[in-house]
Structures are given as structure tokens and as C-alpha cells.
């Protein structure tokens, strides 16, 4: 495998996103660093939020490489970590994963909907369903560089949801202030959905209490 990894780096520029070692995906050391219990955030307007990992240092490179640079070979590893966060909420077998929708301009620029792809793959790992029932109703500005209050104001009223008869889990790649998750929760509740909580791959702030998942996803 090390020969394959070296050839991939030579021919395709493949590197571990955590340490830049020649590797097709995360190297064993970085993967071991990610393989840890998820953490639970303080409830946001009654919404429990679970993060599989801290955003830094490994995922601050890994997630952007996947969604912005088209490193689709990282999708399975990221979906596994998302599945770990979902599992920590203890969803029943009829739960549906609902991804937070990206801005349409971002989807067009990337050429794919990363949130929907990760939600679908994590759902399959857990034997659950996934549905894109959230949509953007107005654009909203780019969130980068905005503080908590500005993010909340920027996202308020930007989403609408269809009804899902069973329980749902909101999923996203990163949580920063929680503004997008709060808006997704608002829209789903307005549509009469029963929201169990939210699960993300990475927390940009960290320092949440560690939780042990009742079930897990295998590598």
C-alpha cells in the first residue's frame, strides 16, 4: 500500500490532508487521531448537537480539500465520522438524516452537493434514510468572517422544509456558531417535523463534553 500511496502522490499529488504524507486519504496516524468519542455541545434552543471531532488541526484541511478541491476519495472517511456523531444521538431505525443545504452558488461552483453526499453515505453506514427536505428560500451572505450575532441574523428565515413523518437528525460538516443548524431546526419544526438533534463532523470551537455513542459505525 505504501508503494501505491507513493505513486498516487507522484502522479496525482495525493497527500494525507492531516500531515501531507504521500497517501491516498488519511494516513494511519491521522486516522487514529480522529478515531475518538464524539463530543456534545450545549443545547442550542433545545437542540442537542454532537460533533465527531475538533475541526483543527486535521479536519481544517481535510474538509476543505473534500468539498472545495474535489478530493472525493476523502468522502468515506468523513462520512464515517459523521455517522459516529449521528450514532451518539441514539436515533431509532426509522430516523432520517437531513443535510443543511449549501448556498446554490457554492453547489454550482463545486459541481456537487457535499452535504447531501455525506448525509447519504453516513445514512447507509447506519442503516438509516436520508432526504433533502431543506431548501434555501433566500441567498444570505457568505458566513465567513461573521460573528455569532451576525451569523444568526444572516441565516434567519433563509430555509424552508418539507414534512418528514418520522424523526429527523440534522447533519452538516462543520458547526461554528450553530446559526445554520438553528435555522434548519426552525424550518423543520415549522414543517411539523420531530427533530432529534444535530450531528456534524467537526466543531470549529471545541471544548465540549465527551459523550459515548450507543452504537457506532465501523471503519
Annotate the secondary structure layout.
Elements: H1 2-12, H2 28-34, E1 39-44, E2 47-54, H3 59-67, H4 75-87, E3 96-99, H5 104-110, H6 114-126, E4 129-130, E5 134-136, H7 148-155, E6 159-161, E7 167-175, H8 179-190, E8 194-203
Parallel strand pairs: 2-8, 3-4, 3-7, 7-8
Antiparallel strand pairs: 1-2, 5-6
Helix pairs in contact: 4-6, 7-8
Provide tags for this entry.
219 residues; alpha/beta; Rossmann fold; 6-stranded mixed sheet; two-stranded antiparallel ribbon; 21% strand; disordered C terminus
Summarize the structure.
With 219 residues, the chain is of the alpha/beta class. The protein folds into two domains: 1-34, no CATH class; 36-203, Rossmann fold. 37% of the residues lie in helices and 21% in strands.
Please list the strands of the largest sheet in the order they lie side by side: 1-2-8-7-3-4
Structural class: alpha/beta
**How many domains?**
2
Instruction: Tell me about the largest β-sheet.
Output: 6 strands, mixed
Total strands: the figure is: 8
Q: Mean pLDDT, rounded to whole units?
A: 84
Keywords: Glycosyltransferase, Transferase
InterPro entries: ComF/GntX_DNA_util-trans (IPR051910), PRTase-like (IPR029057), PRTase_dom (IPR000836)
Pfam family, one: Pribosyltran
Domain Phosphoribosyltransferase: 115-205
